[in-house]
Amino acid sequence: METQIKDHRRYDIDWLRVIAIGLLLIYHVAIGVQPWGRMIGFITSEDSWSTLWIPMTMLNVWRIPLLFFVSGMGVYFAMRKRSWKSLIVERGQRILLPYVFGMFAIVPIHLWLLRHYYGMSQSYTWSPGHLWFLGNIFCYVLLLSPLLFYLKQNETTKLATWIKKTLSQPWGLLFVLAAFVAEVMLLDPVPFELYALNWHGFVLGLLAFFFGFCFVLSGELFWKMIQKWRWAFLAIAGLLYGFRIAQYGSSIPGYLLAVESLAWIFAVLAFGSKHLNKPGKALNYLSEAAYPVYILHMAFLYLGSAWLFPLAIPVQLQFFGVLGITLGGSFGTFEIIRRVGFLRPLFGLKPVKRSPESLVLAKTAS
């Protein structure tokens, strides 16, 4: 019975993937109205919305790690009907192909807009850009798949049984915490919130990906346990975030940031599993749109920034205007992509399956 429950599709994980990518998109728009945005390659407004940094700094310690946890969970379900070879092929089509295509065809667009806006010399430049995490995820699949397949296919072995029993108890989460604290103690990332294209982001993502897989492997007892402790996770996260705000300008130890990050993530997983594990038309649409919209959004973000930031309007209107252009442009382009067969795989969408009737008609017509 536990296997049936555990193997059943979890809609809360789909929702959390959509939410995580949505938060990343909003966070990127918010960088444009921060005074330090240009330092990390964003078009920025002459005016800044400093109070927006308060929710931004709450998000920045867990928004990226959450995405890696959810990606590891997704791989568990992707393995149910696939061999090792077919998993690698499928992940290559869904993750590696959009990553390579985006690196050479999509990211150069917003890099061109950045140079044009600031009067820099123009040249074609390819880069992983904001798609770096797709490359990381594919590496994790390659590196961890032998272990993950062993655990999935041998769930009654001592190792798999120990993982499931341990992660079904609140004290078992201390092992997860110890791994993330060890990562920051060994790599000493400064700042903690910088994950892109560095060893801190790679190792942290690897840990999150693996433990995300293990959480789903642990079955219903894990989800019931974190639901029971959800308010405690939220309280710990809130207290550590409050301490961080109170110490603004001071250096916060990395181990405290790791604890806060995991507390937020456990709380999100717990509340999500309790309230979001339900299907719906909105989820179906947003799940399909999530990766294409994220791949596209930086081009429209920079286009909107270049248009609105020079205007003499309040910075708050600039922010919401750029957000509207980013969402409208990205979703509008997604509507085209989803209808064009050869474009779908380039943006991580599954090829459209043709019905037997349509294949017969096609053969008859030919």
β-strand percent reads under 5%
Number of continuous helical runs: 15
Number of strands: 0
Query: Radius of gyration, rounded?
Result: 22 Å
Largest sheet: none
State the shape. globular
Q: Decide which structural class fits the backbone.
A: mainly alpha
Low-confidence stretches: 1-7, 358-366
Helix proportion range = over 70%
Mean pLDDT figure: 89
Q: Which H/E pattern describes the elements?
A: HHHHHHHHHHHHHHH
Head-to-tail CA distance between termini: 50 Å
Explain what this protein looks like in three dimensions:
The protein is an all-alpha fold. 70% of the residues lie in helices and 0% in strands. The chain has 15 helices and no strands. Mean pLDDT is 89; it is low at 1-7 and 358-366.
What is the compact description of this entry?
The protein is mainly alpha-helical and 366 residues long.
Indicate the topology.
Layout lengths: L1 H6 L3 H21 L21 H7 L3 H16 L5 H34 L14 H22 L4 H9 L6 H15 L11 H19 L2 H9 L1 H17 L7 H22 L5 H28 L6 H23 L18 H10 L1
Name some characteristics of this structure:
single chain; 366 residues; mainly alpha; 0% strand; disordered N terminus
